[in-house]
Specification:
Elements: H1 4-11, E1 17-22, H2 40-51, E2 59-62, H3 72-80, E3 87-91, H4 94-97, E4 100-102, E5 112-114, H5 121-136, E6 140-146, H6 152-155, H7 158-171, E7 177-181, H8 190-199, E8 202-207, H9 214-220, E9 229-233, H10 241-248, H11 259-274, E10 279-283, H12 285-288, H13 291-310
Parallel strand pairs: 1-2, 1-10, 2-3, 3-6, 6-7, 7-8, 8-9, 9-10
Antiparallel strand pairs: 4-5
Helix pairs in contact: 3-5, 7-8, 11-13
């Protein structure tokens, strides 16, 4: 049974704003999302239907698509577990967004080889975009091309990368909502903003130690110039993924609240809602300690700001 307080809170969030978490298979969310104890495997197989009934969750991130492609049939099974108003945010395959991949036989990624499909629009269309659209249908939300840190020699020439990115984006099929997420702050040049605008693609505002703050990203790539506002609140600035996982597991409480990011994200959501612009926000456990509680606190801040704007 949904928490009545969450139901009331959800009713006050602008309809254009969708909040959710990065994946869902976390046993530590018992009492927050799940009403009973379950294993990670059980939740991975059947937890989505319960997750999608939570009043605050109208989207979810699918991260596994970064590591291996999914078929249209696999996407369709996800879609069948969600209501018609639910939307999926999916990460594109890393073979498309990583300039190098671990070499065959490499241990711990110590030896890397060029990815043959890096920024290959034909491969992305066939392997990523096609199954994503065919399987999810009208439940397809943003398809996020998350670029891992570029090799040093490529990162030193941001203009050349942006030109190549522009060619890639404009060669993709029209229709889906695409977003680009960076891990190199020096790529956020004016040519990057122009490339996204020309291709009709959103910048994915992300909270990550390698990137400027959300407010700084909004200044460099203004959300009002984008087809939608896409935000991924990923990682606390004082940790890497491994240390954050160890500190926050089992992800059942807020440990390191990030008020600066919460304030900036809430402001971006309310401003976009006033423009009737679609908004997607995905929170990770490693942002503050517990993604469901991060979403709840963010929802409260959004509602507070909406109420203040109506006064």
């Amino acid at each position: 049974m949904p928490d009545p307080a969450d139901v009331r809170l959800a009713e006050r969030i602008p309809a254009s704003v969708r909040l959710g978490t990065s994946s869902w298979a976390f046993p530590g969310w018992e009492g927050l999302v799940w009403d009973r104890r379950a294993t990670e495997g059980e939740l991975a197989r059947s937890g989505l239907a319960a997750y999608a009934q939570h009043p605050l969750f109208r989207t979810v991130g699918i991260d596994r698509t970064f590591y291996a492609p999914l078929s249209a049939e696999q996407f369709a099974r996800y879609a069948a577990d969600a209501p018609s108003d639910f939307r999926f945010l999916c990460k594109a395959l890393d073979a498309v967004t990583s300039a190098t991949l671990p070499g065959r036989g490499a241990v711990g990624g110590s030896r890397r080889e060029p990815s043959p499909h890096f920024l290959d629009a034909t491969y992305a269309t066939d392997t990523v975009v096609g199954p994503f659209l065919a399987g999810l249908g009208d439940r397809a939300g943003p398809l996020v091309f998350q670029f891992v840190p570029l090799p040093r020699e490529m990162a030193r020439e941001p203009q050349a990368f942006v030109e190549r990115l522009h060619r890639f984006l404009t060669a993709l099929p029209r229709g889906p909502l695409y977003a680009v997420e960076l891990r190199n702050r020096n790529l956020m040049i004016d040519a990057y903003r122009q490339a996204l605008s020309d291709a009709g693609v959103a910048h994915c505002i992300n909270v990550h130690p390698t990137m400027p703050t959300p407010a700084e990203q909004c200044a460099a790539a203004p959300p009002e110039t984008m087809p939608a506002v896409v935000i991924r609140w990923m990682l606390n600035s004082t940790h890497d993924y491994t240390s954050a996982r160890e500190r926050y597991h089992p992800f059942d409480k807020l440990v390191d609240e990030d008020l600066h990011s919460r304030t900036a994200i809430a402001a971006a959501c309310v401003e976009a809602a006033a423009r009737r612009q679609p908004v997607y926000v995905i929170a990770n456990n490693k942002a503050e300690g517990s993604a469901p509680l991060t979403v709840r606190r963010l929802a409260e801040e959004i509602v507070r700001r909406v109420a203040a704007a109506d006064v």
